[in-house]
Specification:
single chain, mainly beta, OB fold (Dihydrolipoamide Acetyltransferase, E2P), 3 domains, 6-stranded mixed beta sheet, 5-stranded mixed barrel, 1 helix, 20 strands, 46% strand
């Protein structure tokens, strides 16, 4: 019986030692992390990756593509990966850090600079006016109160003036949280699409043009179908008859020829800015 107890105690001690060794090994290897450097303080020897701050130690091993590098090689915008351990004070202390990719410094002039930002361009795919964001070619950008938005005519624009499918260019900066924050955004033309036999010509101020024959009028939903496309009439829509006098949606009739301008909303609706009964001045026929 005594022998059995002795064996049991020795087995428990061996298991405890095994667990302790495993924990020590895990602590020495550290916890893995990776991401883009959003800020780096060389004097404090701290860097921020994602939403976490990491402390560099004199014993931290810094490399660039697995080759030895110095702490001064670190810079904002780089992509890094490494391992850390948690100190008694709750700090993330870096064990190893490898710079896997340098920061992208391409801008309009070919060189990045303070206040100049990184260049972007593309087509607007989605606009979220509640979150103050715009998605351009699949990438989300944040519009700040300080963002400078301009239309094609160089006039100041707002997020509410933007429409889906417009071509835009601009510059942004990366925030400490990794968000792309717009510095400047310039509106270009909307991608051309055939509408009612015509071609769209879009900008923030004038909208895209359309023309065609009225096919259906839904006065409950405030919509009118022209050339197979549905357009939404807004309280601000300006509707004119052949003589240029203001009329309302209830004055329109099926099979009338109309033309006008519209903008595309964030939800993809075609919202009429202006609608005039008759053919455009440059398309009068007998």
């Amino acid at each position: 019986m005594k022998t059995f107890r002795t064996i049991t105690i020795m087995a428990l001690l061996a298991a405890a030692l095994s667990v302790s060794a495993a924990e020590q090994s895990a602590a020495e290897q550290g916890v893995q992390f990776q991401g883009r450097v959003s800020s780096f303080d060389e004097s404090e020897r701290t860097l921020r990756v994602g939403d976490q701050t990491y402390q560099l130690l004199p014993t931290s091993r810094v490399t660039r593509s697995d080759k030895p590098a110095s702490v001064s090689s670190l810079a904002e915008g780089q992509t890094v990966e490494g391992r850390y351990k948690m100190s008694a004070e709750g700090k993330r202390e870096v064990l190893t850090l490898d710079i896997t990719r340098d920061a992208d410094r391409s801008v309009a002039s070919g060189q990045d600079g303070a206040g100049q930002g990184v260049k972007f361009q593309g087509q607007i795919g989605k606009i979220d006016r509640e979150a103050n964001t715009v998605t351009i070619d699949g990438t989300t950008y944040h519009v700040l109160p300080t963002s400078r938005l301009t239309g094609r005519a160089g006039r100041t624009a707002q997020l509410s003036d933007l429409s889906r499918n417009q071509q835009v260019t601009g510059t942004y900066k990366q925030s400490a949280e990794g968000r792309r924050e717009i510095l400047t955004l310039d509106v270009g033309r909307e991608q051309g699409r055939a509408v009612g036999g015509g071609q769209d010509r879009a900008d923030v101020e004038s909208g895209a043009t359309f023309q065609g024959q009225v096919g259906r009028i839904n006065r409950e939903n405030n919509t009118v179908t022209i050339g197979g496309n549905t357009y939404h009439i807004l309280p601000t829509t300006r509707i004119l008859n052949r003589n240029g006098r203001p009329i309302t949606l209830s004055d329109l009739n099926r099979e009338q020829r109309v033309h006008g301008t519209y903008r595309e909303s964030a939800e993809g609706r075609r919202e009429v800015l202006t609608l005039e009964v008759g053919r455009p001045d440059n398309d009068q026929r007998n």
